[in-house]
Predict the 3D structure of the following.
Amino acid sequence: MVKVKMKLTPEETDILHGSQGETLRKTMETLVRYGEAYNAECLIPLDGPIHMVCSFGMPTLRPLYKIMEQYVAEGIKTKLPFTADPRPMDYENVEVSEKEKQIFHQIYADQDQYEDILKKIGLKNNNAFSCACYFDEVGNVPKRGDVLAWAESSAVVYANSVIGARTNRTSGVMELFSGIIGKTPKFGFLTDEGRKADWIIEVRTAKIPRPQVLGSAIGMKVLEQVPYIKGLDKFLGTTLTSEAKDYLKDMGAATASNGAVGLYHVENLTPEAKDYGEELIRPGAKTYVIDDAELERVVNSYPIMWKKIDEPPQLAFIGCPHCSFVQLCEWTETLVKALREEGKEKVAIPTLISSAPDVCEKFEKTEYYPRLMATGAHLTYICPLMYMSNPLCSAKRVITNSNKLRTYSVSRYVDDADLVRAVVRGGLQ
Amino acid sequence: MKEFHGRAVIPGELKGSALVSHTGFNVLASFWKSLTEGQNPSICVDQNNSEFFGKQLTGEILCIPQVVGSTTAGMIIQSVAALGTEPKAMLFSHTAESLAISGVLLADIWENKKIITVDGLGDQFLEAVSNGDKVEICLDGTVRVGI
């Protein structure tokens, strides 16, 4: 272990010197060297549970499972019950062929064992699998100012920006280490200075931009830096309504996946921007103007990865990140209306709508659920990206309104209106 | 020959050819086939990175501005290191994002694999280096291009 500059407590120093065994020593060494790389002054206690990005049992990730098995063997658990990203498979609600199933079993061969390990080291419950752990129904809901160690880029950017909690874009495994020790290095978004904006984004569009495209444009431009977004309150208002939160959820996921944004401020809307305004902008911040032409340029830059680009789509994915309860109700109304207008009863292509297990359970008790089921769409809790990891599934022509899914797969981005038209008519024309 | 000075996050000495991307390096999207199919050597499958797409990443000296994308990045770097398909070095023009730092630390501490990592080399580094250029990395974070 190299000489430590960070101020450690006697207990932390003892762990670092191996007083609680080799596994915790290496855990502490990793956290300390991680903090040292960013000149963290100390380790700071977590105020809430971690959220883990790894929810899938892939044999190639056995190095991670090996570490977790060591924790289990030594009786080590996270300080608080935690949540994790969505499960990769849902055979009950997502139809797959026998061949596709076989491949899923190969890719996620360790799924059952992995979930068993997660439970043993502190997973909250059997429903705790969602990228949107901050939904009230899921229950990993931080308060403003809470110090966290979350992974899952879309959850991190939501927690920081919309809630005003404080978490770095913690990597998979590193978030687990913080949950085990109960502390995380204090740097970056955990400090006031680290939350200041490097960019001013001026939104000058004629109408409200599509959140997934606006987020994509911002992410590609600012990469990991913090944007202060002006002009969006004109469309979203100055109150964080459920509609505004859903918009920011989807926009944020695109900023984080198309770039590496972990925090944004929206003038007159997000908590810190409301309190501090332009004081959050660093001197010398750069400006990026986004108008309709710029958004068009961004959309046109997306490559279409389908082998036969003129052929109709074979599957549609909605819900990456997971849909909120309100969004599930809205999609129900949208699909029902679009089918009625076309004189049809069922969607023309398989349409998968994904949400958190707890949100799905709540939705299933409402009058919306039978109406959605009547359209032929499927409600599921899987991670669309994990579904697309199956080469037989990714060989299909998949459309999605998610810029995150587009980025990590060969699916094709379409906006909501085009997606609805496609699932109702069976083609993009 | 041009010389640049950065911070040696994982120090090491190495000479080799540069593989350059001027856009952010998306670890998950790039190593997707290694992750899901155990592809070895790792070939970049990130459709958004035209400079890396289709190129071998294993054993290369990656010259990049920054790591972008999913927070799985750290554990993926650890896993490709455990598989033996990791790049030899990562040279960043910006300060390396926490995901990249996590990954190279996990590889070092838990897999005993050193992916030489130097960050903060400056924008001029990426302007000066091209694919195939001979690069020398020194222990103190000095990087020479066109040796």
In short: Chain A has a mean pLDDT of 96. The CA atoms of residues 314 and 417 of chain A lie 17 Å apart. Chain A touches chain B through 46 residues (CB under 8 Å). DSSP finds 19 helices and 13 strands in chain A.
